[in-house]
Amino acid sequence: MKFLAILLLIMPFVLMGQTVKSYEQAMEKFKKFYNTGQGDKINAMFADDQSHFKLTHPLWTNARAAERLSEYGKLTSFKFVGVDTVDPNRVYVFQTVFSKKGELTTSLTLHKNNEIGTFRFDATSDEITRLLKKAESRR
Fold first, then answer.
1. What three-state secondary structure class fits 61?
2. From CA 35, how far away is CA 21, in angstroms rounded?
3. Which helix (H) or strand (E) holds 33?
């Protein structure tokens, strides 16, 4: 009976597939490619179900990465602040710090194979604001 109770408690996490660590690894990879201006490598991080867009309308190109680097500066750090469960995509939210723009929030979702599903470079919402305040109060 204990086994069944434990199984029922952990099953949602198993079904989700990804952990915070998976998202942190994706952000670390994004940071590496972004800071070196490799928009094509960022574009390759997106899920295969978006492959037609990856080729015809890439979300990231080397030129776009260069533009963002010029405007925002290097991504110096990121920290997980929580999951926006109000968003229909259930996005994982990170507080990001850029050398020129300062603090922003970035959010993303991952598919089962840890490819990016959705990615919002500069995300904001009432729920994200709440998550940031909650994270700030824990410091």
1. coil
2. 21
3. helix 20-35
Q: Strand ranges (DSSP E) for 31-90?
A: 75-84
Cα separation, 71 vs 3, in Å, equals 53
* Residue 33: exposure state from Cβ atoms within 10 A (0-12, 13-18, ≥19): buried
The pLDDT confidence band at residue 9, using thresholds 50, 70 and 90, is very low
Q: What letter would DSSP give residue 118?
A: E
3-state secondary structure at position 90: coil
Contact residues for 62 (Cβ-Cβ < 8 A; gap 6+): 37, 38, 39, 40
For the segment 84-125, what is each residue's pLDDT rounded down to a tens digit?
Answer: 999 998 999 999 999 999 999 999 999 988 999 999 999 999
Q: For residue 55, give every residue at least 6 positions away whose Cβ sits within 8 Å of its Cβ, in sequence order, or none.
A: none
